[in-house]
Amino acid sequence: MNKTKCVIFDCEGTLVDSEVLCCRALSSVFRKFGAELSVEQAMEHFVGGKLADILTDTKKRLGITTSLDVLEPQYRIILRQLFESELRPMPKAKELLDHLEQNNIEYCVVSNGPRDKVEHALELTGLLNYFSGKVFSAFDTNSWKPEPDSILYSAMNMGYLPDECIYIDDTPKGLEAGVRAGIRTYQISGLSKESYPGVRGTIQCLSEVTQIV
């Protein structure tokens, strides 16, 4: 096995502590259109993936006919307000990034979200300076996790082969993308208790990454 030369991070629920905020936004936007969706129910069904798919699945489950063209902008507005007031970095995120810097291990972030949303989340949590030129989005490849393309694209742009990288995510769809990319993939414990076959292990805190690179 090659030594780890690059750590590829998912953003939400991995670098920034956002998943409960996402579920609160989901609950708010559907309640606005007359559906009963508690935060707990949103959390129970949380699996990550493309926002349009999450909204579509929730619409079907609740029997709501409101268009995605209405729901998606409303969701993004509510979530942005929650992020600006409450978003925090995941525990030990800065310490881990400092450790990687000191040990000459590269790193980047790849998300299903738009680049500006990712950069805004990193800025709000004091992490953006670490990721100058290292932010990748599924919108770059027009392919969303669980497809592996955005992860492979980020590895290629960083200049590394898949077997020189590890990938860290918290949701089943993200983990599937990492495994399908042929990258050693680890789950960080979060809202979703589901995993994906082929994941190498689960970590409880980002500080544990120092033991697997």
Tell me briefly what this model is.
The protein is α/β, with parallel strands linked by helices. Helices cover 44% and strands 12% of the residues.
Model description:
- By secondary structure, the chain is of the alpha/beta class.
- It has nine helices and six strands, in the order βαααααβαβααβαββ.
- It has helices spanning 19-32, 39-44, 51-62, 68-86, 93-102, 115-124, 138-141, 149-158, 172-180; strands spanning 6-9, 106-111, 135-137, 165-169, 184-188, 201-203.
- Strand 4, helix 9 (172-180) and strand 5 form a beta-alpha-beta unit.
- Helix 1 (19-32) crosses helix 4 (68-86).
- The longest helix has 19 residues, at 68-86.
Binned, the helix content reads 40-55%
Spatial arrangement of strands, main beta sheet: 3-2-1-4-5-6
Mean pLDDT: 95
Order of helices and strands: EHHHHHEHEHHEHEE
Radius of gyration, rounded? Answer: 17 Å
pLDDT below 50 for ≥5 consecutive residues: which ranges?
Answer: none
Number of strands: 6
CA distance, first residue to last residue: 11 Å
Oligomer: single chain
Structural class computed from helices and strand pairing: alpha/beta
The fraction of residues in strands falls at 5-15%
Helices, by number, come to 9
State the shape: globular
Profile the largest sheet: 6 strands, parallel
List the helices and strands and how they pair.
Layout: E1 6-9, H1 19-32, H2 39-44, H3 51-62, H4 68-86, H5 93-102, E2 106-111, H6 115-124, E3 135-137, H7 138-141, H8 149-158, E4 165-169, H9 172-180, E5 184-188, E6 201-203
Parallel strand pairs: 1-2, 1-4, 2-3, 4-5, 5-6
